[in-house]
Structure formats: structure tokens, C-alpha cells
Specification:
412 residues; eight-stranded mixed beta sheet; 14 helices; 16 strands; 27% strand
Amino acid sequence: MLWLVALSFVCFSWAAPFPANYKEAADKIIAASTSESYLTFDNYEYMCDTFGPRFVGSDNLENALSWVSDFLTSEGLKVTKEPVPNITHWVRGDESLDMISPRKAKMALLGLGTSVGGDVTAEVIVVSSFDDLHKNAEKAKGKIVVYNVPFVTYSETVQYRSSGAIEAAKVGAVASLVRSITPFSLYTPHTGIQHYKDGVAKIPAAAITVEDAEMMDRMYKRGQRIVLHLVMKAQSFPDTKSWNILAEIPGKVSPQEVVVMGGHSDSWDVGQGAIDDGGGFFSAVHAVLLINKLIKEGKLPQPRRTIRAVLWVDEEVNQRGAAAYLEAHQAELKDHIIAMESDIGNFDPTTLGFSGVPEALKIIQAIVTDLMGESGVNKIEEGKGADTDNGPLCLQGVPCGSLSGTGDTGPQ
């Protein structure tokens, strides 16, 4: 609901204090956004059920984008498909992990994005940090490195997933297995992007469950010899292309000025992408659809500025969509009033992160205090408005916002 409140009001004015009719408009949006006649998950569910995972390079993603574009056009929005080149095309293929010693057991794993394939049987070394790995560099040669690093925060712990293969390869390891970057596990490995570095050998990289990482850590500390057989049939293909989708309600007074809200359209390949980030970009889409419906019903005036929902592509791998949007709209950034992104799950909203100049922060504070009513948002985190896709805009001086809520304790 945060999109249907905070973002929408910026579209009607950029000055505080607000006239009484702004509060009236705010109340109408809040009432509509919580009404069963307006609040629907039908289209969101249809997309997730019909197209499944929306991984970059896949037909699923392209078919989903075509459907979203057609759907938004049929709803009367101005829709633009902007090309995004150089999209990575990686396919995980079959993969397995078996313990050979001290006992035989099948273990759950998920290859990390862009990992090379491989068929490796080797002894394990378990480490608790990069420092631990470097101190035991000689022991790691020819081994499979298992990073058993407990979750602290996502931003702090994710380095072991993104750079684990690089650091392991530097000391001569033959594969890298990282404890899934999550505070909670039901024997569920979590995938995500990982990176290689020029001049450093590319070795297979995968995520294992918290439970198996802890078990191997105990075995290793007891001095037991652990041998694993890792098979990954991942393949990389030539780059392809995709699209960012823009859906707009044109502004009446200053149409060249734009309020951006959005999320990313792609997802990983092993789930439906319902939370990361179907819920985020559908929040933006339905905010625009709701406002457009209220305008058609005569309950809201045409917005002063253009309201633009952006569905950025390729957030999960290389952020080509964010880069392409920045390049395509560089000359217009002075007229971007704010850019908001939702990419941390959609739960009950509590906090609005904001990055911008002090004068803009005062306006956002007034919006939260005076206009957001019973929305549940009662806190602003200064300097926390940038996320992955709106971040490049923020670095160019565009005010940025990002929402968080009751369920935001880590990756979904």
C-alpha cells in the first residue's frame, strides 16, 4: 500500500504544507487501496502461475514481459518497451552433491548464477571467513572450500556468495560451496549471483543449506576427513537482449516532470519470483492502475506530473536494465522528481527510506505526517532510499525512496 500513498501524493504537488484537498485525495487513495473492490492479486497470481520463474535469457521472462505490456496497454496506460542489450544467458542444468566420506549421503545444493560447470570429487576444508581461508591457504589447495559463515546482515554476509569462488580459486581450491545467505533454513539452499575475476581460475560455485554447512563444520573440527562429489552442468550462452517496461499516466501541468516507482521484472530460475520481485513491481503497477481508475471515475484530478511505473529487467544478474534506463533518460534526470523502488518483499509497510537533499526530506516528512493516515508507515530512514535499480539515479542526484515492512529480516 505504500506505493498507493507516499508516491502518489508527490505526483500532485512538491510543496508543503499541503492544502486541504490534498488530504482529501490522500484519503481517497488509502480507502481505495484497502477496498476489496480495488485490491486484487488476480493479475499478480496469474503472472506467477502462468509464466513461472522469470530468469534473464529465458522464454518465461520474455513471455511474461509481453503479457505485462499487453495487459497495461489494455488498461489504458501509455506503455513503452525500451530495449536492454547484453543480457547474460546462463542455464544451470542438472546438479548434484554427494558426500562420499565419512558416510554416503545426498546433499541439497543450488548452483550460483554464472557459475561454470564441473565434475569434482575432492576433500573439504571448512572456513569461517576469508581471513580463515587465507591463513589456511596451503591446506585449501586441491580442496573444496566450504564457507560456514553465519548470517549477520545480508549486505555483510553476501560477500561470501559473491566473491567466495574468487578467493577460493586464488589459493588453489577446486570448488566453492557457501552456506546459504539466510537467517532461517528448512534445509533450503538459496541461490544468487556470484562473480569471477579476470586472471583468476573459474571454479564451480554453489550454495548449500545452513544445516549441511553446520554439520560439515562440526565434522571438520573433529578432524574427520570429508570427501564430496559435486556435479554441475551449468552452461553460458551468447548474450541476448530484453526490455524495460514503462507504464505512464501523463501529467497535466508539467508532463515533462516524472515520478518513478518500480521494481524488477526478472527473478531467479528456481522459484516463481512472487516476492522477489513480482510483489514489488506489481505494487508499482497497481499504484498506477489504481490512480488511473480513480481519475477515470472522477474521484481524482489528473496528476500535475507524469507518473511512471518502471519494470527494470536484469536486476538479479548484471543490472543491465538499470544501466539502460539511466542511459536512455540521462538528459531528463533534472525532471525526475523522485525514483522509488520496492525490492525487499511486500509485507505491512512501516518505514520509508529516503535519500535526497534536506529540503526534499522535509517534504517527505510532511507527506508521512500529514497525508499517509492509517497506512502504517510511521518512520523515515534518512539516507536509505537507494536500492539496486534506482541507485544509479540516486547517484545522479535524483531523490530516491525505498520501502520496508514487518517482514524485512533478510532475503526471502
